Every structure is written in structure tokens, then in C-alpha cells.
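Field notebook, page 229. I keep forgetting to write these up properly, so this time I am using the form the group agreed on. The chain and the ligand, guanosine-5'-diphosphate, are recorded exactly as supplied. Prediction of the bound pose follows.
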Amino acid sequence: MSQAQTKPNAPINVKLLLIGNSSVGKSSLLLRFSDEQWLPEDESSATIGVDFRVHKMEVKGKKVKLSIWDTAGQERFRTITSSYYRGAQGVILVYDVANKESFDALPKWFAELETYVSSAVVKIIVGNKVDKEFSRQVPASEGQAFATRMGALFVEASAKTAVGVADAFRDVVERILDTPELWAAPGLARKGSSAGAGRNATAAAERAMPGSIDLSKEPDEAEGGGCAC
Ligand code: GDP
């Protein structure tokens, strides 16, 4: 068990992942949420290259330390490694409301999740770029219906205008806090792990991840993010 988790007022460590097709705005959503930043389209390359961010928040009276992981472009090569999924309690599946193809790819992403994470892991579908209403290709009702079918939360958002972004992250964290098995015994969140694996296994998995951070450290020690640029 990590040191931070044994202290009475220690924050609950939550690992979130962003997945979805390339260019749907995963890095932009992360940057908007964690740094309240937006890089104009012409300044952001195909992928901004953020690996992860650590973000502290208080939800339902509980302190939460989020580590939010971005694919940093791995999906372009169809090589998201299983280690990316390890220990996740929540997954944010992103599509672009102005790109039907990115929405149609969601079942493929769900299939990947089935392989790597347990069904208890909280999923939220985010229809991003809602500021591009003029070129919308996916109605909100279609996104919502699909999310309901898949047992996922749903929100439309824009990393550009910030609309819906905080809601997306808050909704997923709230649902995770409503599912104590995910954070009271995080080992359960991983496919194929035994209930007894618990926190030690998760902490070991975190340490094993390339470029991973040690979440047992105090916030000042565990730096707020990484960059693959
Ligand atoms: P990723 O590959 O999924 O991480 O996508 P990026 O975050 O790198 O974004 C891809 C492109 O979409 C960049 O040019 C971004 O500026 C742009 N983008 C991201 N989010 C939004 C948004 O909410 N609205 C608009 N209009 N463009 C966005």
C-alpha cells in the first residue's frame, strides 16, 4: 500500500486515460482541463505530445489526485500498449462531432477496452469540438444514444471554448467515487488481476510504466506532467 493512501486525509489516487482517434482533441482537452490553456489550431501540431498531467481536485468532500494520461499519438500507429491501460479507473473516449469517422471508430475503442480493463472501469464518451457547430456530422442525440447503449456517461465539449470540459472530468471522477471497488481496491480495475492484488499490484504496475510517476509521493514531488515533445 502506498504511503499516501495510508494517511487518513490522503487523497484518493485516480488514473484516467484518454483514448480515441488521432486529432479528435485528446491532448487539447487535457491541456484545457489541467492548464486552462488552448493552443491555437495553427500552433498545435497533429499531436501536442502531452504524456500525462497530475491534477488535484475535491469531489464529494473527498480529495482526489488525478493522473490523466494521453496517448501522445500512439494511436496513429495502432500500437497503444497494454501498459497504457494498466491501473486505470476511468477512461475518456473522445470523438470529434465534426468527424463522423471518429465517432464510427468508438466501437473499436470499446473492443480494445474490453481486452484490457475490467467492465467496472468508468467510461465517458466526449463529443469534442462542439464549437464547430456549422460542420457538425454527429448529432448529440446519436452520441448520447450510443453512450447509453454502452453503459457510458456522455458529454459534448470543446477544448477550444472550454465548454463541457470540466464537466467531463468531474462526471467521470464522481462516478468513480461512487464505485468504491475501483479505488478502495484498485487491483480490481485491471482485467485478469485477482482481488487480492490490490494496491500493491497497482502501485507496482504504475512504477513499471515507462515515464510513469510515483503517485505515492507528495504532490510537489510528483511533478505535474510530462511531455513527449
Ligand atoms: P489528439 O491527436 O486527439 O491529441 O488531438 P489534438 O489535441 O492534438 O488536436 C488536433 C487538432 O484539433 C488541433 O489542431 C487542435 O487545435 C484541434 N482541436 C482540438 N480540440 C478542438 C476543439 O474543441 N475545437 C476546435 N475547433 N479544434 C480543436
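OBSERVATIONS:
- The longest strand covers residues 50-59.
- The beta strands are 12-19, 50-59, 62-69, 90-96, 122-128, 153-156, 225-227.
FOLLOW-UP: compare against the apo run.
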